[in-house]
Amino acid sequence: MLGNFTYCNPTKLYFGQGALDGLKNELPKYGKNVLLVYGGGSIKKNGIYDKVVQILKECKKEIFEDAGVMPNPTTEKLAEGCERAKRAKADLILAVGGGSVCDYAKALSVSVNCEEDPWEKYYIRFEEPTCKLIPVGCVLTMVGTGSEMNGGAVITNHAQKLKIGHVFGEEVFPKFSVLDPEFTFTLPRYQMVAGIFDIMSHLLEQYFSGTDDNTSDYIAEGLLRSLIRSAQIAAENPTDYEARSNIMWTATWALNTLVAMGKTTDWEVHMIGQAVGAHTDATHGMTLAAVSLPYYRHILPYGLAKFKRYAVNVWSVDPKGKTDTEVAEAGLAAMEDWMKKLGLVMNLTELGATRDMIDGMVKSTLIMTGGYKVLTEEEVRQILTESF
Amino acid sequence: MLGNFTYCNPTKLYFGQGALDGLKNELPKYGKNVLLVYGGGSIKKNGIYDKVVQILKECKKEIFEDAGVMPNPTTEKLAEGCERAKRAKADLILAVGGGSVCDYAKALSVSVNCEEDPWEKYYIRFEEPTCKLIPVGCVLTMVGTGSEMNGGAVITNHAQKLKIGHVFGEEVFPKFSVLDPEFTFTLPRYQMVAGIFDIMSHLLEQYFSGTDDNTSDYIAEGLLRSLIRSAQIAAENPTDYEARSNIMWTATWALNTLVAMGKTTDWEVHMIGQAVGAHTDATHGMTLAAVSLPYYRHILPYGLAKFKRYAVNVWSVDPKGKTDTEVAEAGLAAMEDWMKKLGLVMNLTELGATRDMIDGMVKSTLIMTGGYKVLTEEEVRQILTESF
After folding, report:
1. With an 8 Å Cβ cutoff, are A8 and B5 in contact?
2. Torsion-angle region of A210 (φ positive above 0: left; ψ -120 to 50: alpha; else: beta)
3. CA-to-CA separations, B374 to B2, B132, B133, B264, in angstroms, rounded
4. Which of A30, A134, A279, B12 could form a disulfide with B176 if both were Cys (CB 3.0 to 4.6 A apart)?
5. A2 and B CB contact within 8 Å
6. Distance separating alpha carbons of residues B386 and B377, to the nearest angstrom
7. Tell me: the pLDDT tens digits for A87-144?
8. Chain A residues with CB inside 8 Å of B7's CB?
9. Among positive and negative, which fits the CA dihedral B22, B28, B29, B31?
10. How far is CA B178 from CA A50, B9, B10, B226, in A?
């Protein structure tokens, strides 16, 4: 059943070829000072930077830059961005990039006018913003995180060796996001397939939890089927617009709160994957890929009915003449086959991990309680060992 | 592929048991004068009226009433409502009822301060509102139309024998809606199953169009599967909370624009069904039920691949050893079986129609161009004849 919830997602999305023109509708709604936030500069090579700047100028905006946002944005970078935003008297933060850049822009939004240390307030005490927010808009160049239509903002504190995500309320969601699938064409294949698995993992983390019948799981199944099909096509031809547009749209809906409405969720794969990331600095989506199957095979007996349903409804496994366990295992086998064909990393060795890191990874793994089995430390160790 | 689009749906939803308490969060955002809009008074019998009024009083609101909204709200009623809203200096229109009441509230929202005849401006010339809008909130007591989270507002002009829907932009969407599945428990079974088929029809109208591969169709398949399952349970036990909550949530997402994003749509079943309604005054969902299978069987050869996909993905038809046409037909046969078990009206005779009405119904049927076959007048006649 659907538990009680509130749902609100006010982000306006401009989707498709030429979607960047949507900026011309949005920019006039804000004051003239725009803080343009981006990462390592790939947007300068692929021409997106020039296009954005041209529209900002057309709309008579004063442009202030905050470049160099790293894949895991840090508290130091956030402090620097706050200074830049204050000096610029920013009326709008425009993020151009992937999930990290969008996350960082939202963290900036709630931090610029914050009268205390934002890390302490939002990431240690998990309080909600009480200061004046600076509105955020996004131009997405990489898909996977759903950050373009949610309130998530992950920040890393190196001094404290902590990487924490705060999921803010709808007042922090981007006011608008531009989603042009062609902007993702130049992404290296490794990043593309890692992003695809991140999307799949978001859906599965929310799907593999609970035993009730609720609409959210059916929507997730639809999104999974679309993702599986389009991923296969994109892996063969990364500039297939149909496939890339479906992947982009699926990514948004995989993590904009819809498929979690009224149900419990797991997120243990992300916890193990992030522990791997903390010890290897490997690409996020690949860490999830390396640990997912060992984890799901481990918890399968505890969530058998759902794994059977996953096999039949998502992977079209024919249940005739098979035991429930055989059906469920056939679903995971089909998933493994699909993952290998995509070229995903299927073990921790390929991510640069070594077995002597296992102890540390176990210690870094947060235990969640929404999945089919609350793991013991020994089980986390076993799953990590099976991921080599 | 996903065509270009913009998406924005800012309505805040309070869903579940006790969702009415959400009013206490929302009401303080508006001025003190509330126009309470409702229908024939069933909300006074089932206690919802008293609950709403109590919260309005707790929130120190001045309550003005606009009751008697009919199943097909008229231009006369709209004019009366505008007068009431003006006299009340309404700061908020609170609709308590089903789709008609929500539709009417939105029509009021754009009409109260309209300086010309709203019928002419919005329903004949299809212009967008330029006047100050009055915000709308909804408390849903009947599911099916999705009006609680979209911009649709159908109004009937009896003098001109026209019933027209205007789909307004997001500024006219309800600011908030309260969805408590228990509020739908007292609905008579006939209305419940008619509403369920209306939801299914909304999904199918958007699904049976186009030959490309897009995520929206996969989401629709998920919603259809959830609806099919929960409808069967609700038909046996109308107070099964799990089933009714899933039906309510599916109804919202079936017609809040999501499953139409980036794709073409049909809506011919609604056109034929509305023509039947104009000549019989039969319940909307039942008119759709009576004409759907003859229509879909007629267009099946033109959209064979999609009907096959529908059979396999939605009705779990096993395609092995069957021709494409056999698979597609087996899907519609499964749908027919499900409809009969629900107790839906399967022919026009039961709706009070007679064969001498066919000519008039043909004339009243608008021909749409997004489906798999643009119908000729002769084909509409044939489908209507087969619906007896």
Report:
1. no
2. left
3. 22, 40, 38, 14
4. B12
5. yes
6. 14
7. 999 999 999 999 999 999 999 999 999 999 999 999 999 999 999 999 999 999 999 8
8. 12-13, 15
9. positive
10. 45, 16, 14, 21
